[in-house]
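Input record (one chain):
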Amino acid sequence: MTKMLDRELDGVLNQPIHRAAGLEIVSIVNGECEIRYQVNDTTANPHGKLHGGVMCLMHDVAGFLAVASLLSADQHASTAETHTSILRPANRGETIIVRAKVDRVGRTLAFMRSETFARGSDGKERLIATGALTKAVVSVSP
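The corresponding structure, as predicted from the sequence alone:
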């Protein structure tokens, strides 16, 4: 892990909404990240489907962790733009998998994409959303 990722990881894991969602980091390596969480009482809408806002939030989390794996200790990434296309619903009790990949890190901007899958009790994954994120890369004091 990079020092930037080392600095930020506990804060990401300790966010109350992330804990309530059961956020699990599966992997973070070389500009790629995979996270998992559950469609539970916190992440479901009143109809028992994954809340669209939570889906957008977790795209942002996965993208942040992916880019954090490439940045130095004196850098930080802040969301500048995000776009999520929701393709189909996910149901209460399903596991949600988000995979994010950094396409490019420039001097001031980083670009990444993500895909979200729902895994049901049969173990099969189905694509439920795609996303694109732009992060501003800024300098911070170590």
